[in-house]
Amino acid sequence: MSSNAGDTYPTWRFEGKVVLVTGAGSGIGAACTRRFAEAGALVAAVDLDGAAVAALARADARIHPFTANVGEAGAMDAVIATVVEHFGQLDILVNNAGIFRTAPFVETTDETWAESIATNLTGVFYASRAAARVMLARGAGGRIVNVSSQHAAVSEPNGSAYTATKAGVEGFTRTLASELAPAGITVNCVRPGATRSNLTAPIFTQQVLDALLPRIPLGMVAEPDWIAQGILFFASDAGRYATGTTLALDGGYIMDGSLAAGAAYGSS
Ligand code: NAD
To answer: Which residue has the higher pLDDT, 138 or 268?
Structure first.
């Protein structure tokens, strides 16, 4: 039987690693950008909102801001080419940028549909393809971590475009993982549940929270940092044996099949 006695323990440090995070200006993206930088990585922080990533960069010299739209053809190729030119490599890509547009299905406009697909799905394709090309050319493996949503797996009424994009991201993750595994590039997905951020601030009214919190077994909305920890896990040595998988960080939302109003099977 082989022994792991001489194995090094997984590390959560990222010294010498170059990371690119999309949607880095806010919420989950900003949280993981800060954590990667604190753990020693050089981080290319990409966002449509240039002022937001510039502010992150002012707080930590390891963070480098880039203003770009992930859904625009050629934009992520250009950003990743600049990252490789300046830092010599790209080790880790986090596809986090996302938008959440809601409308009853029959009132969903072509624009809402196209904008959702462009940012949440095509953006993941553009950045992953550009990153995989440079990772394959270098031959030193790599990590891609995508951010989906619990609504990839359960219905979100009025969120047809969003749920389509997030389910697409999870399927895309599995195919990429198969294709890139021989090159030592892992591809995984973090599936957040309800998380406090700019995206959810307008949605989490008191009325929504009163209905939402009893529906979450852990009874809490997540902080962005709690989701960032899952992203760092897949990107770290600790996550070296995971590929093509999805980690739900949702307070138990999806696994819970409880009956409504506190009723339970077997109780009288
Ligand atoms: P957020 O709105 O706080 O941050 C998203 C960031 O992405 C913003 O800074 C925004 O400017 C940027 N962005 C949007 N479109 C972009 C584009 N085309 N190009 C570049 N940057 C762009 O949102 P968040 O809650 O931190 O969400 C991050 C990810 O997590 C998203 O993919 C979202 O769908 C997913 N998610 C969030 C929740 C939640 O409850 N907050 C739940 C499930 C999944």
So the answer is: 138
